[in-house]
Design brief:
The chain is of the alpha/beta class and about 550 residues long. Helices cover about 30% and strands about 25% of the residues. The structure holds adenosine-5'-diphosphate.
Length: about 550
């Protein structure tokens, strides 16, 4: 009797399981949702010739289906990889959904990569077709002979605008759309099917391919839209200045249609005047790396312009100086959302928004908080560990190696044997960070860039952020210079606003007022230009070479 009672209970329990519908998390449901519930939301876009196009989600979805069908008719199959090298424009959004809508994989190509890197990633990912913006043809012409997997090229232009090229098999986007049907049925599949590929920048060794799944992209967009993150809604107009090819385009091409917000695409012209013009088309929230905003703020100041609709600016990719946060908020009434992310995280790791514990602080303390990169969304978990792998307490002071795990975090790089994570799924970010008692994380350095002086770590980021607050400094980088007593000492490499050498002592004393005494830079090297990576970050690798070529020695060694 007892046994039959248990069996009955278990079976009743079993009948409770799995009674909700299956809803595969596929990115095509994002664009379907936008087309059905936000059909007329504006998508404004600037093309390579400066022409402005107005479209909406209904049209975008319709064209995405034509792209999927057109590619299908060209022989593209589920799992094939399509390389896309394009600026932020509406056609890019159409192929962004058309490719995974066919079950194929969208490989984002950064036009700023060196030819060797492009050849490597196109071959490594096995790109079958390349889709390009018109003005990017010369970049691919240089490498195409060494990319044997590429069978065809599609140029994002009309048939009439298609130029003669060295490609043997090329068609215009207009021709592709003409062959496709808007009634194409999205190809179904598993949530965990590959959806897109983005390669890391490869500053050390070859770039590594991060393959996002339909599921990871959908979950990531859901969590990124949340109030404490982007707080994005259908009443917003978002302008992604960060290119769609950089770190999954910060997921904006998924998050915006998921909530039905309008989009303004700025195209390839990222000059401050062009960006300003596009921002004034009703943009309420925008996103890019700090250098873009430094230039825009200079432009606003010198041209005496105001920002009439902008409310929030997401700043990430590298650390955001306090002066940029202050200028946006105090001069233009635009709230800064400082964010940290990585290609491997799809990319959002943390965003700095206020919690009840920080909302009540005074203005200066709030700025201290905003200099941190904030706290993670649901689906991202963080820890910092010491040299022995032991987890460090969250005191906001002690630095450690930053590890991350989550629903949209890499597990394994494309075609690599070993896992990218340890046995507990923790991914070593390569960043060094502190976390405070409220869970606010602060990146202090890349582990390989940290300056080691007398057994202590000096944050190169802190020195750089302090230096750009000096009125003569346009850009600054801090590096460790070998020193016989201290191992390394910090030295600043500076580009000045007027291109001339400025007063070294004044820059050093400006920085020393903002950091601990022993962290004060020992010298300033003035240069015409600081080298950058393909994603616009300071390339410490190239910078060290540049300083070595100058035959620079620490003042104590001269
Ligand atoms: P790429 O180097 O190609 O731009 P990622 O965008 O993936 O590739 O770079 C991620 C790295 O950028 C992080 O590991 C971190 O070092 C740096 N980073 C991103 N956001 C911030 C931030 N807000 N502050 C400091 N560093 C940041």
């Amino acid at each position: 009797m007892g046994a039959s009672f248990i069996t009955k209970e278990v079976s009743r329990e079993r009948n409770m399981d799995n009674l909700m519908q299956d809803f595969p998390l596929r990115v095509t449901s994002i664009i379907d949702h936008a087309a059905k519930y936000h059909p007329d939301r504006k998508i404004i876009s600037k093309d390579t010739k400066g022409k402005i196009t107005n479209t909406n989600y209904k049209e975008i979805c319709r064209n995405s289906k034509k792209v999927a069908d057109g590619l299908h008719k060209l022989g593209v199959k589920k799992g094939d990889v399509i390389g896309v090298m394009a600026w932020n424009n509406h056609s890019h959004l159409e192929v962004w959904y058309g490719i995974p809508g066919l079950g194929a994989v969208n490989h984002n190509l950064n036009p700023r990569l060196f030819s060797e890197q492009l050849i490597y990633i196109i071959n490594h990912a096995n790109d079958k077709i390349l889709i390009l913006d018109l003005d990017l043809i010369p970049i691919i012409e240089k490498v195409i002979d060494e990319c044997p997997t590429v069978e065809k090229l599609i140029i994002l232009c009309s048939k009439a605008d298609l130029p003669s090229t060295k490609f043997s098999d090329v068609i215009s986007y207009e021709e592709l759309l003409a062959t496709g049907s808007e009634n194409f049925q999205w190809v179904s599949g598993d949530e965990t099917d590959a959806c897109g590929i983005c390669y890391t920048s490869g500053t050390t060794g070859n770039p590594k391919g991060v393959v996002y799944t339909h599921r990871s992209n959908t979950l990531h967009a859901l969590t990124q839209a949340a109030p404490d993150m982007l707080n994005l809604s259908s009443t917003d107009t978002i302008m992604p200045v960060v290119p769609l090819f950089h770190a999954n385009g910060w997921s904006i091409a998924y998050t915006a249609p998921l909530v039905g917000s309008s989009i303004v695409f700025p195209g390839g012209d990222l000059s401050p005047s062009s960006l300003y013009n596009m921002l004034e088309r009703g943009v309420t929230i925008t996103a890019a790396v700090p250098t873009v905003w430094l230039l825009l703020l200079n432009f606003l100041q010198s041209e005496e312009k105001e920002l009439s609709t902008l409310k929030r600016v997401v700043i990430g990719g590298s650390s955001c100086p306090r002066s940029v946060i202050e200028d946006f908020q105090n001069k233009y009434g635009v709230r800064v959302l400082h964010a940290w992310g990585m290609t491997e995280l799809s990319p959002l790791g943390t965003i700095c928004s206020f919690k009840p514990e920080t909302e009540s602080l005074n203005e200066s303390e709030k700025l201290d908080i905003q200099e941190t990169t904030g706290h993670p969304p649901f689906g991202v978990d963080l820890k910092i560990v010491d040299d022995n792998g032991k987890e460090i307490d969250w005191d906001g002071i002690t630095q450690g190696d930053l590890y991350c795990k989550g629903a949209a975090v890499v597990k394994k790089y494309l075609k690599m044997e070993e896992l990218a994570v340890d046995g507990d799924n923790w991914f070593n970010t390569g960043d060094v960070a502190t976390i405070d008692k409220n869970g606010y994380m602060r990146i202090t350095d890349r582990s390989k860039d940290v300056i080691k002086s007398g057994g202590e770590w000096i944050s190169s980021i802190d020195l750089e952020n302090a230096a750009v607050g000096h009125s003569d400094v346009a850009e600054a980088a801090a590096i460790g210079i070998p020193h016989p007593k201290w191992d390394e000492r910090p030295v600043l490499v500076v580009v000045t606003n007027d291109g001339k050498n400025a007063d070294k002592d004044s820059i050093i004393s400006h920085v020393s007022e903002r950091v601990a005494k022993w962290q004060k830079p020992d010298d300033v090297i003035f240069v015409d230009e600081i080298p950058h990576t393909a994603t616009g970050k300071i390339s410490k690798l190239e910078l060290r070479k540049l300083v070595a070529n100058l035959d620079y020695k620490h003042p104590d060694l001269r």
